[in-house]
Model the fold of this input.
Amino acid sequence: MELPNKEFLAPGHRGCAGCGATIGVRLALKVLGENTVAISATGCVEVITTPYPETSWEIPWMHVAFENASAVASGVEAALKAQGKTDTNVVVFGGDGGTADIGLQSLSGAMEREHNLIYICYDNEAYMNTGIQRSGATPYGASTTTSPHGKESFGENKPKKNMPMIMAAHGVPYVATASISYPEDLMKKVKKAAEIEGPAYIHLQQPCTTGWGYNPAQTIELGRLAVETGSWILYEIEEGEFKVTYKPIQRRMVKEYLDAQKRFKHLTDIEKEKIQSHVDAICTELKI
Amino acid sequence: MVTKVMSANQAIAEAVKLANPEVIPVYPITPQTTISEYLAKYVADGDLDSEYIMVESEHSAISASLGASGTGVRVFTATSSQGLALMHEISFAAAGLRLPVVMADANRALSAPLSIWNDQQDSISERDAGWIQIYAEDGQEALDSILMAYRISEDKNVLLPSMVCIDGFILTHTVDPVNIPAKEDVNKFLPKYKPDHAYLDTKKPMSIGTFTDPSYYMDARYDMELAMERSQEIIAKAHTEFSEIFGRDYDFVEKYRSEDADVIIVAMGSICSTIKDVVDELRDAGEKVGLVRVRVFRPFPKTQIYEALKGASKIGVIDKNVCFSIGGVLATEIRSNTGLDVSGFIVGLGGRDIKPSDIKEIMEKTKNPTKQTQWIGLKKEEH
Ligand SMILES: Cc1ncc(C[n+]2csc(CCOP(=O)(O)OP(=O)(O)O)c2C)c(N)n1
Ligand code: SF4
Ligand SMILES: [Mg+2]
Done:
């Protein structure tokens, strides 16, 4: 797949060195092009890209609050329609907290009303902008500041909320998972999401150097490890058809992925094995 | 009893540990977040035996608080700015249902433009919801006020929720020595919450949150007004007993070198520490200036404020909030409740720094008033 040279997310934003979120936004915008309006929920991406009086956005962009990005986007899409601008893409970037937790209601409404939007959840698996608190998308075992490990706790004790399947259950015509470490797969999915009639949802995993605790040079590697170990699965659901879009040739051990990150450092071998067998069960079912 | 150096957020978390609420529903937002984080850690380490609910929004944090309080247990929640605004609907419900929830608000500006920095617009905008509101000046007062808030809110003659407000970053993220009371003393001051007006119990079914037609609603609201008025007495009693047990004195308003002052500045929260320094400096230079700090904002202590101000010839009121086309809320309320002539000053919105020189400018402008409300610290001249 050809990578357009034109950039729509300018450098100089205030993201951490090695931030995976901006890589995802940048790649998505390359596919969507200049005839696109972007909406952000409050979160890292919104804060780091718009330190007034500067902005990284080379396309029209709007932020209102944390819980309502999909509702704001609904209004934008309707207003574009009212102006006859039906060829303009409307893309929403919401963090996992802004998507799976506080923004779930407005997302559900927008999807059910079939607004023609592309919703991209950039998932770093916690509330990073406020300093690493758990979200509904925080994986089992991860230590965050509100699911800390301690004498009476091993960290997050609930499995990750399955957002893509919740979206699929809404009948959203195009639902996909993606990773910033597989740019071609991601960009193909964004293209499909833009081309499809009606709403689309992409759940984009994005390693976060600060929140996960690893060397900033290893962001892409971490994203790969997630997929190569089966901890994160790349698939799409097109008009109800489920398809895995990437299969690791030889699945690696989940422990490799866990051990590379500070947020899992406290886990005992027994817990790590538990996570491995959970991953095994899903991968076996999906023939990965 | 120990003294430790800590932020006001940690002081509040310590107070919550001492008050030991059964349920703590919280949601992160800067600059409140560290309160939630300390509490999570206490629970994870087994130092606090509370049900900690990491909810999915502030609307749910306050809603879960009402559910828990309505089930008859003590609860705590904390928020800030956008979070408090998102709670707005339920904050009226909390007071109307007469549920003695205690909440900490880390004062922060409201969007837009988006800002994480301090002013008091968030809690001031909740002033009509029916909550007791206390504005602390430092970490010690934040801790003490949480303990007193439970005592006041849970009193059968009050049964209104309380909000303890602390200035974001200025208090939430700076450290001071804070005295942590002994648990036995706290237990003496704060008996277990045992409601007999609202609790969900299968042995004695009751309906909470009913639908009322016009023949009931207004009287329910009038009862809240009476409770708010009665709370004055309960607050005074809490201050006295707190002083007896813990040796620290609090009042509705704090009078700082204001007894014989010609010029008095009125303000709330951490800015009062800066004003006190300026008052000392000007007193040394022979000027008769003083400060009146409003600590309890709801119920509004009209009489105490009037008594504290009536001797001054010039009064300046500082607000970190604005009611557009009216002025600052504290100034407006003092004007209309005391009949005194006061100059209003809007300062520090969205974290704009307030320096001693700004306070001196305010003192000068108070002495020579030109208009009812002036904005201090703007980049461009006010016009
Ligand atoms: C109503 C409301 N509550 C809380 C906040 C504070 N807040 C801002 S961003 C954020 C977390 C965002 O997490 P996520 O959506 O996962 O995005 P990330 O920061 O990880 O990119 C929180 C809690 C807010 N701005 N508004
Ligand atoms: S905290 Fe994580 S997501 Fe946020 S800017 Fe830093 S690396 Fe990116
Ligand atoms: Mg996140």
Notes: Residues A 21, 42-45, 66-67, 95-98, 124, 127-130, 135; B 28-29, 58, 82-83, 86 surround thiamine diphosphate (ligand 1) (CB under 6 Å). Chain B touches chain A at residues 26-30, 33, 36-37, 40-41, 43-46, 54, 56-57, 82, 86, 111-114 (CB under 8 Å). Chain B is about 40% helix and 20% strand. The domain at 2-246 of chain B is CATH 3.40.50.970 (Rossmann fold).
